[in-house]
Amino acid sequence: MKCCVEVNGLKIHAFHGVMPEERVTGNLYTVDLSVEYPFEEAMMSDNLNGTINYASLCDIIRQEMTVPSDLLEHVAGRIISSLRKEFPKCRSGKIRIAKTVPPIDAVLDSCAVSVEW
Are 96 and 113 in contact (CB under 8 A)? Predict the structure, then answer.
């Protein structure tokens, strides 16, 4: 069996990007995260210590999003590193970070980076 804890549509205002105005005004980002872990302990014990707490996942994402970076890949890598450090039981996962109003001349919903590990 496989189990994932998910955080979907976490909205965060942050200051990432290579354009100078992005570091001044920032942008709204949407983060989606899925983390696979061995869930048997949680299934049997019904105890929070046996799972990956999604509130803690949100805290890690928020913390890493406060550090400005040129590239969303860099932000994603920092989030993954922090998650793996905090939750060594993580088997794999996927993160998607979307910039909702990228500074380009196009009509679109967002531009995003997705990383699977």
Answer: yes
pTM of the model: 0.94
89 pairs with which residues across the strands? none
Rounded Cα distance between 62 and 21, Å, is 21
| pLDDT tens, position by position, 1-39 | 889 999 999 999 999 999 999 999 999 999 999 999 999
First-residue to last-residue Cα distance in the chain = 19
Start-end of H helices in 31-116: 40-45, 54-65, 72-86
Both tokens of 52, joined, read 């990956």
Q: How far apart are CA 13 and CA 87, in angstroms?
A: 25
CA 44, 47, 50, 56 torsion-angle sign:
positive
Q: Mark 87-113 as b/e (b = at least 16 C-beta within 10 Å).
A: beebeebbbbbbbeebeeeeeeeeebb
